[in-house]
Amino acid sequence: MTKECPCGSGLEHTQCCTPYISGQAKAPTAEALMRSRYSAYVFKELDYLKATLSEEALKDHDDESVRQWAESAEWLGLTIHDTWAGQEGDEAGIVEFSAKYAIDGEEQEHRERSEFRNDNGQWLYVDGHMVSGPPIRKERKVGRNEPCPCGSGKKFKKCCGR
């Protein structure tokens, strides 16, 4: 029985991320490394996660917290939102992704814009920055033909809506 790769590529894991995680091949792009790192969390391949960190990222690496997160989470899926550079021959790349997971039955989403660097043919994770979703408007939107909220008595479109 074949098993689809958890990274969401649609390929069988043995034809996708497993060769990178096992060391049989190197991830050819920043996105391939990102996908394989997600799969490594799913498969709890903690050595691979550490081995694919850049020197500067290793300074903040905590083996125990990575292990706890990998083991406590039920990994629900990876979505790649965008990539910038990070192709074969590039020196650096950025991948924006969302990883969905559940801890104690509570679904969560980790959205990040990750930076990668190619060191002599080896893509490495450098750093990541959390990305928040679109802002949530809490106040009611004023319609163009409604009275202006400033109290002028004019329609919004003729007053503050200009």
TrEMBL record:
Record-annotated YchJ-like middle NTF2-like domain positions: 29-128
UniProt-listed NCBIfam families: PRK01617.1, PRK01752.1
PANTHER family named among the record's database cross-references: ADENYLATE CYCLASE-ASSOCIATED CAP C-TERMINAL DOMAIN-CONTAINING PROTEIN, UPF0225 PROTEIN SCO1677
Protein name listed in UniProt: SEC-C motif-containing protein
